[in-house]
Amino acid sequence: MPRPHLSDPGIVTIKLRSGYNVGIALDDIEEMEVLERPEERRGPGRVDTGTGKTPISFLSTGGTIASYVDYTTGAVHPALTAEELAFAVPEVSDECEVRARVFSSVLSEDMEPRMWPRLAECVAEEFKGGSVGVVIPHGTDTMGYTSAALSFMLRRLPGPVVLVGAQRSSDRPSSDAYMNLRHAVKVAKSDLGEVVVVMHATVSDTVSHVHRGTRVRKMHTSRRDAFRSINATPLGEVSDEGVRWFGERKKRDVEVEVVNGINDRAALLHFYPGMPEWLLEDVVNRCDGVVLAGTGLGHISSRLIPVVKRAVRDGTHIFITSQCLYGTTNLNVYSTGRRLLEAGAVPLGDMLPETAYVKLMWAMGSHPERVVEVMRSNIAGEISERRLITW
Amino acid sequence: MVRARAGLEIHQQLDTHKLFCPCESRLSDEVVAEFTRVLRPTQSEMGEVDKAALEESVKKRRFLYQATDNSCLVEADEEPPHELNRDALMIALKVAALLNARPVDEVQFMRKIVIDGSNTTGFQRTALIAVNGCIETSFGKVDIPTICLEEEAARKVEDRGDVVVYRLDRLGIPLVEIATSPDIHSGEELREVAERIGYLLRATKRVRRGQGTIRQDVNISIEGGARVEIKGASKLPLLPRIFQEEVNRQVALLEIRDLLRERNATVGEAMDVTDIFQNTASRVIKTALKSGGVVLAAPLRGFRGVLKSGKYRLGRELAERAKAVGLKGIFHGDEMPAYGVSEEEVEHLREKLGLGPDDSFVLLAAPPERAWTAMERVLERARVAVEGVPEETRGPREDGTTFYMRPLPGGARMYPETDVPPVKITREMWEEVLRDLPPLPEEMAAHLVERYGISEQQAWQLIRDGTEDVFEDIASRTAYPGVVARVLLNLLPEMERDGLDVGRVTPEVLMEVFSRLDKGEFAKEGVEEILRAVASGKSPEEAISALRGGGEEELRDFIRRALEERRDFVVERGERAFSAIMGVVMKEFRGRVDGKVISEMVRDELRKFLEEG
């Protein structure tokens, strides 16, 4: 058997007839005999992939939304092709024609910004190829970053782009993957024209929430309902019966438009008491733009304000968000804030720090002459003027 | 004598926190939150699904989980498991050592698929920790090929039909699983093996005690029969009866098979016979029809007399299959006409089914979908009757008989639990385990006899009852080991027979009573009265006070009277009258009250008497 990741190097793993794996010390092995070599197992054969139904594309990026298990070896195989996906999740081929494609196979924490423009182009290709919606299985760790990036890069959408993931591995019977995927497909078939994330709304297997791509954040390391809309309500709720929209949303357009230039010389810094000048200086020197997640209304230590002033004077953008995540920045209320404004820092209202970082790369890459103006305007729902008490 | 063999599988809860999180291992009534889930059978790469798993998913159910004060996100399957509870591993290794088993070099946890809802993840985490053990009883040696460490399942609280409610208090409690080879050949041997393993488990002092903390499953098969698993056969004295009843059941089924074969028996197709029973007097059928149900019947050709006559009870086996999908029961030819079904209706039915004199039938009524599913199960069982004994999982009843629960699960679907790092069992760990081994039963018996002066018979009885540890705990701290032994072996069983609630007489209660006996608060003859009072609901404090109080008042009255009766003598002698009065009082109260207490009270009363003049 393949060695488990943290197994001792002096141990060999064998599988017993009962199904149990045990570790045996190499030194203790007296004799070994090869009885037979099993044949390499092939995947599922002919599977109905929903031909003739509403075509929906599945662009996997490395997150395993579906898998199947070979119990003789214990291997877990990701379902990547249309056949494999339809085999592992037959309900999906009941709802749509499955058009599956592998975009990449990286762990989501290894996602790089330069992959986002290419992903946006792939999405556009799928729409041009006739799909009416695109589902993107994605690792949950950076799904919020990718959804924000696509929200900015896909300026017009003829259908929904739905990112979906699983907090519990899809090889287990309790996995949230299946309900999330089924609900994602329902959203992908709707008249929405935005980039969204669909995940469990509660710890129960009942409803999922549709989160706007620029407003969603992973707020728990492991719970099924980790994804929340911050400073906004979700766009809607999905159950096995269908989608129920909560309020305003962008509907599908006639064609797809991609604006995906990025300048990845940007940084996101989380301010903390004691942050030294040299750290901010160093970052500012290497970047064309920096997003600071300040404390409270968007404050940083007054020690660092001269650094900000110099940065802005030398042409590096400094944008302010809050590490509180909830609520809006306001640099008019306290003196530190006012001094930050004087130094040239630009507050971004209730935009999430991570979303601001992604938007900065996109604004600098796609609209280099109007960065500040673009950053302050509401492009894809990432900034709002009002925050309700009921949220 | 029929050749039968049995294997025993014991699951024992360990006395430590849960296996993969620090929550406490106990049951709880404090429900803090609820949530619902659906469990999905994972597709294997060949598209095959475990038969038992399929049966569960067919019932298409949601699961409602009750989170308790002693469950966390791990039990809710909302957080990955923490690292293995090392304490639990050491206890399990100790058990393995006591069973002469050899530990594996590295413990690797597996995920064993279970989708009946009892595990929130849809699998049980289990690992093989030791192999090649054995145990010896008066009947000889029995092999114990495997010892595993695994998680206990959630507790089923309610089955509401479309929703099953489980509580997470029990989920994750560590279990050690001990499985013997099917080397056991009699009911008595089965009981001895269970007893001995039970003793060894208790000897570690690290297993949970009380109802539900140990489960015994028995696998029995007879020559020509099939392996049947009887789940949850907890009461030791019941084991020989369960063994015998199962052997009898399988013998009868083999005889039925031979009879059916002789007759070339066949099972026919089911058909809807609702029209025959439109005006029936049978309450069961009428009720079913009123709520939109149907009546189905099927011919069982050649089955006359095997459904219910003498020791042949195939009819009960068929009914159990129908009950497993929600019906209350079935009717069959061997007991018809009855239950409101008329002779006429039976005739009509027999004609419609085209039955001959040796043929019988099965009849049931239920809502259409359930009726057809039930009939399918019933006929499947009838077909198997011609082949022999089916492999099954059955549940025990109080009288030793069993009922069908579900098909025997196929080979365990298992794959590695990659969230839990493997644990190497080092030489140092094993040496530590071997260093601290508790005594074997024989050693324990000898020790009890030598140290406490009880008889060998008493020592063995304590061991067999499982109370040798309670005995030692108390006897080691009191001057009355003989009394402790008699209380545990004779008095408590007697009290139970008298209908008293001996559950109230806990080890803690006994400890308190005996330590106060040691302090001289009462005489040993009072122990029975105190314990009976506790069993009737009094606290130990109340019971002891009552005994002393009654005695105390009685004593004081007696002393005063004694003094009054000898007024002149006492007045004359003054303080020196003490010994004479003591003599009189002791004659009456010797043994009932401690001498020291009496002497104090006499002195006290004497002084008061003299002062009053």
Question: What can you tell me about this protein's structure?
Answer:
The complex is a heterodimer of chains A (391) and B (613). Chain A has 391 residues and is of the alpha/beta class. In chain A, 25% of the residues lie in helices and 23% in strands. Chain A has helices at 82-88, 90-95, 115-128, 143-153, 177-188, 277-286, 305-313, 335-343, 353-366, 371-376; strands at residues 11-15, 21-25, 55-60, 67-70, 75-78, 97-102, 133-137, 154-156, 161-164, 195-200, 208-212, 216-218, 227-229, 236-239, 242-245, 257-258, 266-270, 289-294, 317-322, 346-347. Chain A has an eight-stranded mixed beta sheet with strand order 6-3-7-9-10-11-14-15, sandwiched between helices. A four-stranded parallel beta sheet of chain A has the order 17-18-19-20, with helices on both faces. In chain A, helix 7 (305-313) links the parallel strand 18 and strand 19. The longest helix of chain A has 14 residues, at 115-128. With 613 residues, chain B is α+β, with helices and mostly antiparallel strands. In chain B, helix 2 packs across helix 9, helix 15 crosses helix 16 (540-565) and helix 18 (578-589) packs across helix 19. At the A-B interface, strand 2, strand 4 and strand 5 of A face strand 2, strand 5, strand 6, strand 7 and strand 21 of B.
